[in-house]
Amino acid sequence: MRRSGVVLMRSVGGVKKMNKESLDKMSLKQIEIETKKYQTKAKNNRKHFIENLQYLEMTKRYRDDEMYTNSTFSEYIIDKFELKKSTYERERFAYLQFPKESLEYGPGIINKIKDECGSAKIKDVIKEIKKTSTKKREKINDIIKKNAKPVKSKPERTEPTPKEMRLRIAFLEDENKTLRQSLLEKNDQINKLKKTISALKQYKSAYNQIIPVYERVQNSLKNLCYCTK
Description:
Oligomer: single chain
Mean pLDDT: 82
Number of helices: 10
Low-confidence stretches: 1-13
Largest sheet: none
Radius of gyration: 45 Å
Distance between the termini: 148 Å
């Protein structure tokens, strides 16, 4: 079996014609076997690994496998190579745009520069790293940090966001509903107390009317008793 790796180029399609033709002659199974041989942490092998995956992505040949006829490329590489598409895309960017630098420093450094300094400054930061001739990660990190994009401080908000306003209104409406319910309950209690007081007043009035009659009856009974003696 012929060993082959796809060389990434800045031309249309990203794959060198003669290497693409070489892979075109291979079956999907053969390409997968060749690709897995490169699935290591060794930089040069990793480069070939990513290049072969790019070929399969571009040509859609991964769909030659009936299992992936209607699948996405991300589903294919996670199943076949346990590789997340985000990881693949970051490494593809590094090896496609900065192949020599990625082999020298690793795709992780290239993407770190991109994330912290911005795509426009990658070349300048790499030049500065090369000038120091350093291979120490600590010194490389210092250079990246020096060229990093300024951290934008979040402006102080003077007005609430629409979401905060909606939450505040909902809270006040709930509070108002609870207060109204409480007032209705208090009003009901007051009405009951008024009825109780009114009833007590009626009892007092009746009591006041009964007392004189009771006293007269008592006196009459006393007089009756005295006369019988």
